[in-house]
Every structure is written in structure tokens, then in C-alpha cells.
Design brief:
Layout (H helix, E strand, L loop, with lengths): L6 E5 L4 H12 L3 E6 L11 H4 L9 E5 L5 H11 L3 E4 L6 H4 L3 H20 L6 E7 L22 H20 L2 E7 L2 E2 L8 H13 L6 E3 L5 E2 L2 E2 H13 L5 E4 L5 E2 H10 L9 E3 L17 H7 L7 H17 L1
Parallel strand pairs: 1-2, 1-4, 2-3, 4-5, 5-6, 6-11, 7-10, 8-13
Antiparallel strand pairs: 9-12
Helix pairs in contact: 1-8, 5-6, 7-9, 7-11
Length: 330
């Protein structure tokens, strides 16, 4: 008898990671359900190529209206979908913005995770649960590089909310025997990155300046360093965690940091322009507290799951700039 296709439920399916994960799961034969808010009608461009395909949408890809603050609707979705795997990717994910809207960030990131874990605990059939944690839980890190054992020292409301959700996931794994994984992902970018993130801002500015549509770009600190990888590579790590025989927490990172200056220089090099002529500095863009040494050790995920990043930093930046040029030139 043919094996039943696996069914996955994704929160945040319309986001950068959600769209790449959906592509990956569909390629592996899954039936994929996403939770979308009615207000996200306008921001589904990342999965439009899938949802507009009659061979996929309504057959192997389904979107369900729901809100992470509404437990009743979420339970109804679980009852209808009966997912074997849940990938919880949704939530306000802009670190700088979390200082402006700390309450809603904590609600979306922290309490929503609790709500979903409680629903998973009540399911008759076992459900595997992936929680999208973040390197921001380490914040002002006590050691570098950071591992799964590094103490949490968040420096933003977003980091605090993620730390709460990450520890909660561990509690539900230990207390109730649930299959729960925390993916502690470091910064991961792509052409699908939101427009309010500095990497997308830089890539877009380089392309627009090259085409004469913009004259300069204003940025905060150029010295901030991050461990940057490609979102497409990182969603593969999410899937590998869920296929392992036992649930665990994993740092997913490249292990190499680059400064914002490096990102700018690489982006402008992709369009053969001297970045120094076009980049202006404004301290207003600096964060109130800036984590300075966030770099991850991915030894555990490499050794246990066989994962490794496939995309070099320069290739990632070039892909982002070329995608912006393609939109302009279309």
C-alpha cells in the first residue's frame, strides 16, 4: 500500500522562510497547509507562484485563515488538517521594531508559541513541532562563538520574547515528551527578505543607484557584524531536525561574521560602483543596545544532521542585488 503523504502546517508561510520551506516540503511530496491572517492578502507575493498554480494550490497546498492570538481558530485548523509536523515561523521578527512595539512583539513571539504548544499537547496523534528560535536570545553573549549551551542574555524585547519561547519549547519537550525542536537560527537573508531589513535596504539601494533611480542610501553603524547565511539553506536544517529520531535544539549558522560595511561593499561591487560615494551614516538608525559578537558554532547540526550551508556570503549578496535589478529592468 502506498505511503500516505506527510502533512505539514506552517505558521508564517507568507514570510521569507515560510516560502522557501513550502517549496522544499512540496518537493519532498508533502501536503502543506499554511496559517494566514486575512490582512496578509496583500503580502503573499513570496508564495504567489505556488498559490496561483492550479496543479498545486487546492491539491497539495492549502491556506487556512487564522490568527496566532485566537486559540479557538487554531484548534479548529489543527482538527481539520491533523498535521504530522508543525513549523512555527510566524511572529514580528524585526529586532529594531521590537523596541517600538514591545507588547505586541512579546504576544506574537512568546504567547503564540505557548498557545501552539498547548494545542500540540492535546492532539490524539503525536505532532512534531519546530520552533524558530533566534541568535538574538544570546544578545550580549558571554562567549563567542555561541553554542546550544551558551547562556541567554538578550538585549531587545524581541530577544527576550524568543528566549521565553525557546525555554518554553524545552519545557514542553521534557515535561510532556513532545517532539519539539528549537532551531537557533542566525541571520539568514535572501531576495525575499522584508523591505524593512538592512540587508534588503542595501541590496535595493545598490540596484536603484546603479539604474539612476536613487542618489544615496542612509545607514546606521557600518561596524555591526553578523553571521549571515541564505534562508534557502537554513530551511533545509529545519526539515532535517524534524526527521531526526529524537528532538533537540540546534544552532544553525555559517560560523563566519561580516560587517555591514562588508555587505555594502559586496553589494555595490556587484554593480561596479564605489560604495563610499553613495553611503551616508545616521546614528538615528543605531539600536539602543547592539549585540556585537553574535557568531554561531554549527558543529552540532553538522555532525548530528549532516547539514552545512551551501551559499557563500558574496553569492548571497550578489543574488539579492541581481534580484532587485531584475525587478527594475522587467
Amino acid at each position: 500500500m502506498a505511503e500516505q503523504p506527510k502533512t505539514a502546517l506552517i505558521t508564517g508561510i507568507t514570510g521569507q522562510d515560510g516560502s522557501y520551506l513550502t517549496e522544499l516540503l512540496l518537493a519532498k511530496g508533502y501536503t502543506v497547509h499554511g496559517v494566514v491572517r486575512r490582512t496578509s492578502n496583500l503580502v503573499r507575493s513570496r508564495i504567489e507562484h505556488l498559490s496561483s498554480d492550479p496543479q498545486i494550490y487546492g491539491r497539495r497546498l492549502f491556506l487556512n485563515y487564522g490568527d496566532l492570538t485566537d486559540g479557538t481558530t487554531l484548534r479548529r485548523i489543527f482538527a481539520q488538517v491533523q498535521p504530522g509536523e508543525v513549523y512555527h515561523l510566524a511572529g514580528q521578527s524585526h529586532v529594531g521594531l521590537s523596541f517600538e512595539i514591545p507588547e505586541s512583539t512579546s504576544e506574537e513571539v512568546g504567547m503564540a508559541t505557548l498557545r501552539l504548544l498547548e494545542i500540540c499537547r492535546d492532539q490524539k496523534q503525536p505532532v512534531k513541532f519546530y520552533h524558530a528560535s533566534s541568535s538574538e536570545i544570546f544578545g550580549n553573549a558571554s562567549e563567542s562563538p555561541q553554542t546550544e549551551e551558551t547562556p541567554f542574555r538578550p538585549t531587545s524585547p524581541y530577544g527576550c520574547a524568543k528566549a521565553f519561547a525557546t525555554q518554553l519549547a524545552g519545557v514542553y519537550r521534557e515535561a510532556y515528551g513532545l517532539f519539539v525542536c528549537n532551531g537557533i537560527l542566525y541571520n539568514h537573508e535572501s531576495p525575499r527578505r522584508g523591505e524593512n531589513f538592512v540587508t534588503r535596504k542595501i541590496a535595493r539601494a545598490a540596484a536603484r543607484i546603479a539604474r539612476g533611480l536613487q542618489s544615496e542610501v542612509i545607514l546606521g553603524s557600518l561596524e555591526s557584524r553578523r553571521d549571515w547565511g541564505h534562508a534557502r539553506d537554513y530551511v533545509a536544517a529545519m526539515w532535517l531536525m524534524m526527521q531526526h529520531e529524537s528532538p533537540d535544539d540546534y544552532v544553525v549558522a555559517t560560523g563566519v561574521t561580516h560587517s555591514v560595511r562588508d555587505f555594502v561593499a559586496t553589494a555595490f561591487a556587484a554593480v561596479d560602483l564605489p560604495w563610499e560615494q553613495y553611503v551616508k551614516r545616521d546614528p538615528a538608525f543605531d539600536r539602543p543596545v547592539e549585540p556585537v559578537r553574535l557568531v554561531g558554532s554549527s558543529a552540532k547540526v553538522r555532525e548530528t544532521l549532516g547539514w552545512q550551508p551551501q551559499t557563500a556570503f558574496a553569492d548571497l549578496v550578489r543574488e539579492m542585488v541581481e534580484a532587485e535589478l531584475a525587478v527594475i529592468d522587467a
